[in-house]
Amino acid sequence: MDISKWGFQNRNLVYFLVAVLLAGGALACYQMSKLEDPEIKVKLAMVATTYPGASAHQVELEVTDVLEKSIRKMDNVDNVESYSFNDLSLIQVELLTTVKDDDVEQHWDLLRRKVNDASALLPSGANTPIVQDDFGKVFGMFYALTGDGLSDREMADYAELIKREVVEIEGVDRVDIYGERSECINISLLQDRMANLGVKPAEVLATLNGQNETTYSGYYDNGDNRIRVTVNDRFKTVDDIGKMFIQGHDDDQLRLRDIALIEKGYEDPTRNEMFYNQERSIGILVAASSGSDIVKVGKAVEAKLAELKDNRLPAGVDCHKIFYQPERVGDSLGTFVINLIESVVIVVFILMLAMGFKSGLIIGISLVVTVFGSFLFLQFAGGTMQRVSLAAFVLAMGMLVDNAIVIIDGILVDLKARKDRMEAMTAIGRQTAMPLLGATLIAIIAFLPIYMSPDTAGVYTCDLFIVLAVSLLLSWVLALLHVPLMANRRLHPAVENDNSGKRVYKGKIYAILRAALRFGLSHRLGFTLTMVALLLLSAYSYRFLRQGFFPDMVYDQLYMEYKLPEGNNSTRVANDLKEIEAYLKTRKEITNVTASIGGTPGRYNLVRSIANPSLAYGELIIDFTSPDELVENIDEIQEYLTRQYPDAYVKLKRYNLMFKKYPIEAQFLGPDPAVLHRLADSARHIMENTPEVC
Questions:
Q1: Residue 221: is it exposed, middle or buried by C-beta count within 10 angstroms (0-12/13-18/19+)?
Q2: What is the pLDDT of residue 447?
Q3: 163-168 LR contacts (CB < 8 Å, sep 24+)
Q4: H or E element in which residue 563 lies
Q5: In sequence order, what are the residues at sequence separation of 6 or more whose Cβ sits closer than 8 angstroms to the Cβ of residue 149?
Q6: CA 178, CA 311: separation in Å to the nearest integer?
Q7: Residue 284 has pLDDT above 90, yes or no
Q8: pLDDT at position 286, please?
Q9: Helix (H, G, I), strand (E, B) or coil at 287
Q10: What is the pLDDT of residue 259?
Q11: Which residues contact 373 (CB under 8 A, 6 or more apart)?
C-alpha cells in the first residue's frame, strides 16, 4: 500500500484537507465548550427527615433505622451512612463507582420509591423525608454580596434581584442563594400577665392556628358577571397580630398584645450564615448549563452584574468573587497555549540539532497541524476543553512526532543514497506504513483501560484516551501524506558517499554512538546485569514515592473545615471562626477569607467535599497570594490551628478529585454500644498519637 504516492497524485486534495484541519481546528477551539473539569455525575444522595421533639436515640430507632433498612434493599449501593441528631435524621446513600452516568437518575428514582414506601412506617410526628440528589451540580461562579449599612432584608432583596436577572442569561442553568437569614415573628408569652388575666397557653395557640391562611370564599353572580368573593383578613404588620382577640375571651376584649411581647426578627439559631472578610454577606452561586462555554457565560454574567451595579444597585453594594471558574479556565487555556508553543519549539529545536533546520521545521509544522486537527475531531465527538483533554495534548507531544521523524529520516537516507527523488519520497512510507501503524495502535491501546474503566475515575479521564487516539492516528496519516509533500519541496541534502558508493557516517555524534555500541557489545554480560540492577533499584525506590492517584490542584485557594462535637451551637462556631480569621489576616500571604457557618455554601468546585449541615460546623475559604505561598505555609497554619483548638476538628484541605471527607476511616460493628465506644476511643487515641496525623 503506497499511501505517500497517492498523496503526490492528489496533492491539491491533501493541501485542502490540511487547510480544513487548521481552520476547522481553530474554529473548534473557539466554539468548543470550555470547562475546568470534565462533567461527571456525583453518585451521592441524601435523605433528610425532621422529627421535632425527638432525641437522637429516638430518631435513630424510629426514623433512621426504618429508612436505612429499606434503602439497603437497593442494588448497586456502595455505602450508606446515617447520622441521627436531636430532631433530625440524615442518611447519605452512595452508589457504586461502576454505575453508569446514564443510570444514576434511575437509581435515584428507585431510592425515592424505597423512601416513600418506608414513610408509612414512620411515627406520626416525623415529617415527610426529602431526597436530595443534585450534589453533582457545579456552581462555577461563586460571589459574596455585601452591602455597607444595609439591613439583612434589603440585602436579601438585592440578592433576589440579581438572581432573577442572572438566571435569564443564555447558558446559565441555575442560581442559588446562600446565607439568607429567614425573617420571623417572635411571640414571647408573658407568664405573669397570662396568670392575672386567666389566659391559658392552649387558648393562645388556638388563636394563632389557622390565621393568615387562604380559604375558598366562593363567587357571587351579579347579572352576567361572576365576581370572586375574598376575605381580607390577612396580617400585613406586626401590629395587626397584636390586635388579634384571644379565643374564649371575646367578652373581655383581650388582645394578643395584652399578654405577649410581639417582635419582628430573624430565626434563631440561624441555620446558615456567611461573612466575607468579617462583613456579613450573602452567597450567590451561578451554574452554567451542560455543554456551555463557561468562559463566555462568565463574561455575560460579569456584564450583567456591572449593568446592575451601574443602574439598579445602590452605592456600597458589591459582588466579590470567591471562586470564579471562567478565570481559572482562561488561565488553563493560556497555560496550554504556552505549553504547546514551548513543546513545538523544544521539539523543533532538538530535531534541528539532530536532523537539520529544514527537517525540524517540517516535523514542527506536522505537529501543529496534528494538534489543530485533533481539536476538530474532538468537537465532532462531543468533547470539551478541560484540564484532562488539554493535559492529554501535552502528554502526547513527544509521541506525535515519532511517525514524522521516521518518515523524514528515511527520506534523508534515500536522498543521500542518490535514489530517484520520487522513489526516495515514497519508499519509506511504503516500507514502514504498517509497522508505524502497529506501533501507533500499541501506544493507543496502552491507554485503552482508562477509557474502558467504568468507575468515576475512568469517566473523569476518558478524554485522555480520546485525545491520544485521535491525535496519534492523525499524526500517522499526516506523516504518510503531508510530510513527504513538504520534504519534496524543502529537502535537498548534500550527498556524502565513499569510493564504493556507500554513505559515510562521520561527525562527533556518530563517533560517540559508535563507541557506545562497541562497548555494549563487547561487555554483554556486564551491561545486561547493570540494566537488571537498575530495574530492581527502580522497583525498590518506588516505595519511597509519595502515593496519590490524583495530585492536589495548583490553586491559590484552600478551604478549612471546622467541626465541634454535636451539642455546641453556632455562636461558639462563629466566635472561633472570627478568632481564626483574625489570625489569618495577620499573615501577609493571605488576601481574603470567606466564612460559612452551618454548612458548605455549595459545590462551587467539583473537586471538594461537601459537609453535612450542622450548627456545630463552619468553614473558611482562604485566598493566598500565590499557589507557592499556599504550599509553603499550609503546614505551619495547620499546626497552629490544631494546637489552639484541641477540642475541635480543624483541617486545611486543598482541592483534589479524591475529595473524601476523611482519607482514613475505621468502622466497628457489634451489638454492644459500650464496647463500640471503647473501640472507637482506642482507635482515636492511636490516630491522635500518630505523627503523620494532623
A1: exposed
A2: 87
A3: 163/284, 165/304, 165/308, 166/284, 166/286, 166/301, 166/304, 166/305
A4: strand 557-563
A5: 316
A6: 24
A7: yes
A8: 92
A9: strand
A10: 82
A11: 21, 22, 24, 25, 474, 478
Tell how far CA 78 is from the center of its chain: 21
95 contacts 136 by C-beta, under 8 angstroms? no
Q: In this model, does residue 138 exceed pLDDT 90?
A: no
Return the amino acid letter for 390.
L
Comparing CA positions, the residue from 569, 660, 613, 459 lying closest to residue 130 is 613
Residue 138: C-alpha distances to residues 38, 40, 173, 394 (Å): 11, 10, 10, 26
Let me know: does 560 contact 650? Beta carbons within 8 Å: yes
Q: Quick one: cell of 682?
A: 482506642
Contact 305, 119 (CB under 8 A): no
Torsion of CA 591, 597, 602, 603, to 10 degrees: 60
Residue 582's alpha-carbon distances to 362, 410, 569, 571, 635, in angstroms, are: 59, 68, 21, 17, 18
Question: Can you give the length of the chain in residues?
Answer: 694
Three-state DSSP state, 149:
coil
**What type of residue is 110?**
L
CA–CA gap between residue 71 and residue 91 (Å, rounded): 9
d(CA 164, CA 284): 12
Q: Are 655 and 323 in contact (CB under 8 A)?
A: no
Asked if residues 170 and 274 have their Cβ atoms less than 8 Å apart, the reply is no
Reading the block at residue 394, the C-alpha cell is: 501535552
- Please give the grid coordinates belonging to residue 398: 513527544
Q: Are 294 and 122 in contact (CB under 8 A)?
A: no
What is residue 162's predicted lDDT score, i.e. its pLDDT? 93
Residue among 41, 596, 589, 622 nearest 323 (CA): 622
Task: Identify the CA nearest to 191 among candidates 199, 202, 181.
Answer: 199
Is residue 600 exposed (0-12), middle (13-18) or buried (19+ Cβ within 10 Å)? buried
Burial class (CB in 10 A: 0-12, 13-18, 19+), 537: exposed
Which tens digit of pLDDT belongs to each residue from 162-212?
Answer: 999 999 998 898 999 998 888 888 888 888 888 887 888 777 777 777 666
**Amino acid identity, residue 31?**
Q
- Distance CA(134)–CA(285), nearest Å, equals 14
Q: Residue 314: CB partners within 8 Å, gap ≥ 6?
A: 147, 150
The tens digit of pLDDT for each residue in 87-132 reads 889 999 988 888 888 888 899 999 999 999 999 899 988 899 999 8
List the beta bridge partners of residue 589. none
Residues in CB range of 108: below 8 A, 6 or more apart: 45, 131, 133
> pLDDT at position 270, please?
76
Assess contact for 605 and 138: CB atoms under 8 A: yes
pLDDT band for position 497 (cuts 50, 70, 90): low
Amino acid identity of residue 137, one-letter, is K
Q: Cis peptide leading into 269, omega within 30 of 0?
A: yes
Cα–Cα distance list, 128 to 32, 57, 265, 596 (Å): 44, 19, 28, 28
Euclidean distance between CA atoms 424 and 410, whole angstroms: 8
**Count of CB atoms situated within 10 Å of the CB of 382:** 10
Tens digits of residue pLDDT in 508-552? 777 888 888 888 888 889 889 999 999 999 999 888 877 666 677
Q: How far apart are CA 237 and CA 357, in angstroms?
A: 84
For 329-362, what is each residue's pLDDT tens digit?
888 777 777 877 787 788 778 877 777 788 888 8
Which three three-digit cell numbers place residue 229? 368573593
- Of 12-26, 455-469, 634-648, least confident by mean pLDDT is 455-469
| Residue 499: pLDDT over 60 | no
CA distance 109 to 111: 5
Q: Beta-carbon neighbour count of residue 426 at 10 Å?
A: 23
Question: What is the mean pLDDT of the segment spanning 70-83?
Answer: 89
Full-model pTM:
0.78
